[in-house]
Amino acid sequence: MAHGITLGKLAKLAGVSPATVSIVLNRHPLASRIPEHTQEKIKQFAKLHNYFPNHLAKAMKQQSTGIIGFVCGDIAQPFYAELCSELTLAVERRGCRLMTMLTQWSFEKEIEALEQLFSNALDGAVIFSQAFTECNERSDRFRKPGIPLVTISDFNNIGVCRVASDFRPGMEALFELLTANGFTRFSAISGEI
What we know:
Layout: H1 7-14, H2 18-25, H3 36-48, H4 55-62, E1 67-72, H5 78-93, E2 97-102, H6 107-119, E3 124-128, H7 137-140, E4 149-152, E5 161-163, H8 168-180
Helix pairs in contact: 1-2, 1-3
């Protein structure tokens, strides 16, 4: 893995303290106290040496990565694509980023995705899955208090926060519309075909 220049080395090149570099590059309010020519020098050195902030170090200091995970089987179907899009917008409005992991609806892959996400200290996760419908050793690790996990499921997943879909009002509205337009015979297909 290639590593660029560090903040400390960048500070030495610019002839300032690492704190000054951090203040300037993170657009901290204290940057207004740093002379404009010093700010420009720091920014030029950062650009010249392809400096990227170390988000892991920042996350450790702030105790937050700003990343929310979304675990879903796939997003090829319009419902899941729209759900992913809306989650992305909601998360970004809160100053965070959404990391989506697709699992092809495999229980093993869902648990592996959660393990990977939480081992990277993300701030929380949303999972569209049935992984928590039954108790088992691997999913039980995520049922502990303090684990920021929400499932989107119609099942009562004991020990895990959940958001459930209520399709009844939508279906009632659909049938009212169909009957108002003269339709009297209905057929519905649900789930995988």
